[in-house]
Amino acid sequence: MKLNFSLLFIAFNLLLGFSQNIDMYLGTFTDGDSEGIYKLQFDTIQGTISNTKLIAKAESPSFLAFSPDRNFLYATCRESNGIISAFKIKSNDTLELLNSVDSHGGSPCHVAVNNLGTKLVVSNYGGGTIALYDINKDGSLTEALQVFKQSTDEQASHAHSAQFIDNNLFVADLGRNSVFKYQQSDIGDGYKLKTESIVSMQPKAGPRHFTVTKDHKFFYIINELNSTVTVAKHTNKGFKLVEHISTLDDDFKGESYCADIHLSPDEQFLYGSNRGENSIVVFKRHHATGKLKKIQNISIEGDWPRNFTIDPTGNFLLVGNRRTNNISIFSINKRTGKLKFSNSFNAPSPVCLLF
């Protein structure tokens, strides 16, 4: 018995030694119990969350982004119609507000920073505008350098996300049913519209978010309104449409609206969230052609999965379920790409998860 107890004690201590807790930041809607931005601890060995702490009070900080050096955090907030807030990440588990600037459009829903940490772009769902900012050396934001108004007399823009890729800026616009390409101007450091849409979208598709392979060759666009993924290939002559593919299970007949999309770290698999079917769809990706094969639709064990993320180890996928106030955690089979539900953690109105 003494020997067995000793072995158990050693094994327990080894397990503790190999456990690793890392920080995860949570953006929320504050129309319920949430008060702003939270910091949590994620155990990358056990796949569990602990230590929820409110680190900044803010009005519906619904999307978050780090600076490249991770010294600063930026949040879209619905205060005063729409603002972007810049925070310094402090060593004592708090955020120091540096400044807030007008987002130049209602309901800002996405923010991104370029690889140099010198520019920031915000997408405004209300009004459909895209606003571009310089980032000062202290992490604070300038007033907007450029504001792009994408609405036309025939179509109201609803900009949903934007990303800096190389010297270009790509914008997913649900209202205009397009993914726009803005090119860096030859004069100054601003951007100008290069193309109205990189590929032809299906009618009423509603581009929301997109992810890109590391070589920037393939774009995967998730469409909110018709629950599809559009695959586009970047060639020397522009973009070529590869395919449109449904995100829903073949047997699902109800209403559903896509939200988020991510590639696995090895880019062999693609994941997307379905609000309504309340699932994560898993695709196997063909490396050469970029085409997708649907291999799984798994329940998110909650309601209305808005944003999800893959932890830095690539072993777990975490889903924020807005309406059921929980984060569902799934283990990832790296060989097959398929998910298995692990556990759930209560969190107030989770809408953005950021490692």
Automatic annotation (TrEMBL):
Any one of the GO BP annotations: glucose metabolic process
Cross-referenced InterPro entries: Cycloisomerase_2, Haem_d1_sf, Lactonase_7-beta_prop, WD40/YVTN_repeat-like_dom_sf
Gene Ontology molecular functions: 6-phosphogluconolactonase activity
Organism: Aestuariibaculum marinum
Keyword Disulfide bond on entry: no
Pfam family, one: Lactonase
Protein's UniProt name: Lactonase family protein
GO cellular component, one term: cytosol
Family, similarity comment: Belongs to the cycloisomerase 2 family.
Keywords: Carbohydrate metabolism, Glucose metabolism
